[in-house]
Amino acid sequence: MTDRAEIFVRLATLAAANATHADLAGRLCAASQLILGADGAAITVENTTANRTTLSTTDQVMATLEDLQDVTGEGPCLDAFRHSTHFSLAVDNQPNQRWPEFARSAWQAVGGLNMYSFPMHPGGETFGVISVYVGQGRELPEPIDAAQFVADAVGAALLRDPAAEGLGDGAWASRAPIHHACGMVSAQLRLPPDDALAILRAHAYSCNITLAETARQVVDRELDFRGDS
């Protein structure tokens, strides 16, 4: 598998560079597509409830695939959420026993392709899914474990930081190094402060270290998300 630190720096820089999306989910979705070498990507949450929401899609094909799963109530994205593991589907003109209605509808709507869905579960509990597709006859260029790492890193970025909830000015002052690091990452990647905090949080997850340690590395210039470290 590609080095996790390298993958994460690519994810952060691509997310920052993709200015066509105003929201963080859209930038991370587009960055995931590029890193994994896919033709399209989507991020969904609450996949087994009536509140299932598609946060972002990169193209109409992916939007159609997500809509069809809503309509049919089946598909790789829904099962990735239910079972907390990845699923794949070759959409072709052959019957599919696991997802018969979705597979048939997808073939009629978008034609042949290969679809992959990966749960986002950075904290252990699955809260969403990243799905990608490649054209028929192709496989996902990156290995499955790399794709799963990307999904969890994106999930860590999208989850709100529990430690930041309800903090007053005094409590925030005690987190001054994190505040300082957010400012530095904002400058490095030209991101809003909230998005910079999300990148710090995701990096901490990906390296299995604390948010405070990640902030220290940035402030001490041991870590630069432009890839200069």
Short characterization:
By secondary structure, the chain is of the alpha+beta class.
List the domain count as a whole number.
Answer: 2
State the low-pLDDT regions, or none.
161-174
Biggest beta sheet summary:
5 strands, antiparallel
Reading the helices and strands in chain order gives HHEEHHEHEEHHHHH
From the N-terminal CA to the C-terminal CA, the straight-line distance is 21 Å
What is the general shape?
elongated
CATH class of the largest domain: Alpha Beta
Could you give the count of β-strands?
5
Q: Helical content, roughly?
A: 40-55%
State the fourth-level CATH superfamily of the largest domain: GAF domain
Radius of gyration: 18 Å
Strand content: 5-15%
Mean pLDDT: 83
CATH fold node name of the largest domain? Beta-Lactamase
Number of helical stretches of at least 4 residues: 10
Describe the structure.
This protein is of the alpha+beta class and 229 residues long. It has two domains: 4-158, Beta-Lactamase (2-Layer Sandwich); 167-219, Arc Repressor Mutant, subunit A (Orthogonal Bundle). Helix 6 packs across helix 9 (193-207). The radius of gyration is 18 Å and the shape is elongated. The protein starts with a helix and ends in a 10-residue tail after the last helix. The chain has ten helices and five strands, in the order H-H-E-E-H-H-E-H-E-E-H-H-H-H-H. Helices cover 51% and strands 14% of the residues. The longest helix is centred in the middle third of the chain and has 15 residues, at 144-158.
